[in-house]
Automatic annotation (TrEMBL):
This is Biotin carboxylase. Signal peptide: none annotated. It catalyses: N(6)-biotinyl-L-lysyl-[protein] + hydrogencarbonate + ATP = N(6)-carboxybiotinyl-L-lysyl-[protein] + ADP + phosphate + H(+). Residues 5-451 form the Biotin carboxylation domain. It comes from gamma proteobacterium HTCC2207. Acetyl-CoA carboxylase is a heterohexamer of biotin carboxyl carrier protein, biotin carboxylase and the two subunits of carboxyl transferase in a 2:2 complex. Keywords: ATP-binding, Biotin, Ligase, Nucleotide-binding. Pathway: Lipid metabolism; malonyl-CoA biosynthesis; malonyl-CoA from acetyl-CoA: step 1/1. GO terms for molecular function: ATP binding; biotin carboxylase activity; metal ion binding. Residues 561-637 form the Lipoyl-binding domain.
Length: 641
C-alpha cells in the first residue's frame, strides 16, 4: 500500500536539476525548499520553490558543498527529506550519514551502497564476485609503481590509467607505450591528488572505439529491482558526454536483456535502493564490460523518461518513502527514440573553454510533445565562473531515431542565444553528420570526425558560400522592407515593398567569410531552401544546413544601390560609379521588378528594378557616364491603382 508521501523536501542543488525536481514535487503535491548561494539569489530554482534558504557565498565549496549548512536549512524548514540532485553532495557518504543522523531521509541509496561504488577499484572487486564482466585490468591494493607498470606490460598497450576516486574524466591518462608509462602515471596521480585528494590508480585495457552504453536501474526497499533499458552516451569529448540517446542504436533485444540482467546483478550485489546507473563499455563484437556505477540520478535521465513514459524523480521520491517500485519489469515498455544534447556556454573552437557572461538573449525552441527543455536559467541571467556552464538540456523524442534526430537539429537551429558563446553549432554539426545519422557511434567519434564537425574541409566552403551569399541578399531585402515600414514618406518606392525587389535576379558578386576563410561568390537573389536557416549573432550569422552549420559574415559589403538607397524616394547612387546600360525606354510601361538600368560600382554590377508597375519618366544619366554617390539616377511614375 502507498504510504503517505512527504509533505516537504529540500533540494540540495541548483540549476536545471533543482528546477527539474521541483517540477515533479509540485506535481505530487510536495512542498519544496530551495537552497541558494550568493550568486544564485535571483535564480530560477529559487523562484520556483515554495521556500528558499541562503546557504553561503558563491563558491560551491562555501555553499552547496557545506553539509552542515544544508542540514541546518532542512531542519529549520521542516523538510522531511533531501534530494541531492547530481554532482555536489549526491554521492557523498558523509552527507548521507548526516541526513540519517538528523532523521532526514536522503533521497538516494543507503550509505553502504555509496561507499561500495565510491571507489572504482573496490567496485570492480564487488562486481567480479557478482559475475559482472569487467574491463580487463588491474585494480589491486598494491599501488607500487613497478607493480602498476608490470600489470600494464602484461596486459599490453594501450592502457588507461584511472583514478579510483575519479569522476568527470579527471585523473585519467591513456598510455600507448611502456616507455611512457612512468611519466603518465605521475601525471595521473598528480591530477587525482589535486581533484580527489586520493592517488589510488587502476590500470585498464584501453579499449579501441568502444561504445559507452549504460543501464538505468531502480531498486526499492522490498527487494524489487528493474532496469529501464539503456542509454548510449558514446558521443563524448575528453571522456565527457555531449549527446546521449535511448535506446542505443543497433541494440538487440538479446543484448539489452543480458546487459539489463548484469546491471541488476550489480545493483543487488550492493543492496541498492533508488535510481542508479551501471555504465558499461560495449565493444564491436557485442561484448560488454562493467566500468562503474553511479549511485544517483544522471544528467541524461530525461532520455529514459521519454522512451519509458516514466517520471524517474517521482520514482525516487516513492522509493525513498518506502513504497514499492511503481512498475514491474514486465510492465515497462520502450517506445520511440530520444536524444539529449547538453547546451553549454563554452567555445568548442577554443578547446571548449567555458564562456561566462550575461545571457542577454535566450530564445529557446518551442516545447512540444517532441521537444523538452530542462533549464535553470532565463534571459538576463549570468553564466558565472562558479558553476558548471550548462545552459539547458535539449531533449527530443519521436517514434523512430531518424525523426527524433530531425527534431534535434531543428530545435538546435531554433535557439537564439547572445551574450555568451555556446556549443550549439558544434552540437548541430555532430547531430547532422552522416556517421551519426547512421548511428555509427563510438567514444572516439568526435576526434574521428573532427574535420566534418569543425568544417575544415574545402568542399564545405564551396557548398556553404553560395547559400551564405543568398542569405545576405535576403537579409538586405528584409532590412529594406523594415526601413520601408518605418518610413513616413508616402511616395517612397520603399513603401511598395511587396513588389519591390531591391535587387532583382541578375547575378551579384559578394565576398563572404565562412569560418575564417573568405570566398568570392556570384549569386542570385533567390529564396533559401526551407531546410536552410540563418540566425544572426554579434559577428554575422550561423547558417544551419543539412550538412552542418557554418558561421558566416559578409566580408566586403556589396555597396550597391540596393543597400544604400535612402528611404526618401530617390533612386540614388550610393557611391561613385558608372552607368552600364539602360534597359527600358522612358514613357513605356514597365512591370514591378523589371530591371530598369544597371550600374557598376566597386567593380560590381547593381541592377535597379522597377519599384512597382509604372514607367520611367526620365533617366538622368546615360551609359558610360560617371555618377557621384548620392546622385538621383532616374525619375519613376507609379501606375494608377
Ligand atoms: P569518469 O568517472 O571520470 O567519468 P569513467 O570511468 O566513467 O570516468 O569513464 C569515462 C569515459 O572514458 C567512458 O565513457 C569511456 O569513453 C572512456 N573510458 C573509460 N574506461 C575506458 C577503457 N578502459 N577503454 C576505453 N575507454 C574508456
Amino acid at each position: 500500500m502507498d504510504k503517505e508521501m512527504f509533505t516537504k523536501i529540500l533540494i540540495a542543488n541548483r540549476g536545471e536539476i533543482a528546477c527539474r525536481i521541483i517540477q515533479t514535487a509540485k506535481k505530487m503535491g510536495v512542498k519544496t525548499v530551495a537552497v541558494f548561494s550568493e550568486a544564485d539569489r535571483n535564480s530560477l530554482h529559487v523562484s520556483l520553490a515554495d521556500e528558499a534558504i541562503h546557504i553561503g557565498p558563491s563558491p560551491s565549496i562555501e555553499s552547496y558543498l557545506v553539509i552542515d549548512n544544508i542540514i541546518q536549512a532542512a531542519l529549520s524548514s521542516g523538510a522531511q527529506a533531501i534530494h541531492p540532485g547530481y554532482g555536489f553532495l549526491s554521492e557523498n557518504a558523509d552527507f548521507c550519514r548526516q541526513c540519517d543522523a538528523n532523521n532526514l531521509i536522503f533521497i538516494g541509496p543507503p550509505v553502504e551502497a555509496i561507499l561500495a561504488m565510491g571507489s572504482k577499484s573496490a567496485a570492480k572487486n564487488i562486481m567480479a564476485k557478482a559475475n559482472v564482466p569487467l574491463v580487463p585490468g588491474y585494480h589491486g591494493d598494491d599501488q607500487n609503481s613497478a607493480t602498476l607498470k608490470q600489470s600494464a606490460d602484461d596486459m599490453g598497450y594501450p592502457v588507461l590509467l584511472k583514478a579510483a576516486a575519479g569522476g568527470g574524466g579527471k585523473g585519467m591518462r591513456a598510455v600507448y607505450h611502456s616507455s611512457e608509462f612512468d611519466q603518465a602515471l605521475a601525471a595521473a596521480k598528480r591530477e587525482a591528488k589535486n581533484s580527489f585528494n586520493d592517488e589510488i590508480m587502476l590500470v585498464e585495457k584501453y579499449l579501441q572505439q568502444p561504445r559507452h552504453v549504460e543501464i538505468q536501474i531502480f531498486c526499492d526497499q522490498h527487494n524489487n529491482a528493474v532496469h529501464l533499458f539503456e542509454r548510449d552516451c558514446s558521443l563524448q569529448r575528453r571522456h565527457q558526454k555531449v549527446i546521449e540517446e535511448a535506446p542505443a542504436p543497433g541494440m538487440t533485444e538479446d543484448l539489452r536483456q543480458r546487459m539489463g540482467a548484469a546491471a541488476i546483478r550489480a545493483a543487488t550485489a550492493i543492496d541498492y535502493q533508488g535510481a542508479g546507473t551501471v555504465e558499461f563499455l560495449l565493444d564491436s563484437n557485442g561484448e560488454f564490460f562493467f566500468m562503474e556505477m553511479n549511485t544517483r540520478l544522471q544528467v541524461e535521465h530525461p532520455v529514459t523518461e521519454m522512451i519509458s513514459g516514466q517520471d524517474l524523480v517521482e520514482w525516487q521520491l516513492r522509493v525513498a518513502n518506502g513504497e514499492p517500485l511503481p512498475c514491474t519489469q514486465d510492465q515497462l515498455t520502450l517506445k520511440g527514440h530520444a536524444f539529449e544534447a547538453r547546451i553549454y556556454a563554452e567555445d568548442p573552437e577554443h578547446d571548449f573553454l567555458p564562456s561566462t557572461g550575461q545571457l542577454t538573449e535566450l530564445r529557446s525552441p518551442l516545447e512540444t510533445n517532441n521537444v523538452r527543455i530542462d533549464s535553470g536559467v532565463v534571459e538576463g541571467d549570468e553564466v558565472s565562473v562558479f558553476y558548471d556552464p550548462m545552459i539547458a538540456k535539449l531533449v527530443v523524442w519521436d517514434l523512430d531515431r531518424e525523426r527524433a534526430l530531425q527534431h534535434l537539429t531543428r530545435a538546435l537551429s531554433d535557439y537564439k542565444i547572445s551574450g555568451v558563446t555556446t556549443n550549439i553549432p558544434f552540437l548541430y554539426n555532430l547531430a547532422s553528420s552522416q556517421a551519426f545519422r547512421n548511428g555509427d557511434v563510438n567514444t572516439g567519434f568526435i576526434e574521428e570526425h573532427d574535420d566534418e564537425i569543425f568544417h575544415r574541409r574545402q568542399e564545405d566552403l564551396g557548398y556553404a558560400a553560395p547559400l551564405a551569399a543568398q542569405a545576405i541578399l535576403i537579409a538586405r531585402e528584409e532590412s529594406a522592407r523594415d526601413l520601408a515600414e518605418q518610413s513616413n514618406e508616402p511616395n517612397s518606392p520603399w513603401h511598395l515593398v511587396n513588389h519591390w525587389r531591391v535587387s532583382n535576379n541578375s547575378p551579384q558578386r559578394l565576398t563572404v567569410t565562412i569560418g575564417t576563410e573568405q570566398v568570392k561568390v556570384i549569386t542570385e537573389n533567390s529564396a533559401l531552401p526551407t531546410n536552410i536557416k540563418a540566425v544572426n549573432d554579434a559577428t554575422g550569422f550561423n547558417l544551419f544546413t543539412p550538412n552542418g552549420v557554418f558561421h558566416c559574415a559578409e566580408t566586403q559589403p556589396d555597396l550597391g544601390l540596393d543597400q544604400d538607397q535612402d528611404s526618401s524616394g530617390n533612386l540614388a547612387a550610393p557611391l561613385n560609379g558608372t552607368v552600364v546600360t539602360l534597359l527600358v525606354d522612358p514613357g513605356i510601361p514597365v512591370t514591378k521588378g523589371e530591371t530598369l538600368m544597371v550600374m557598376e560600382a566597386m567593380k560590381m554590377e547593381h541592377s535597379i528594378a522597377a519599384p512597382s508597375d509604372g514607367k520611367v519618366s526620365e533617366f538622368f544619366y546615360q551609359p558610360g557616364e560617371l555618377v557621384d554617390g548620392g546622385a538621383e539616377l532616374l525619375a519613376f511614375e507609379h501606375a494608377e491603382t
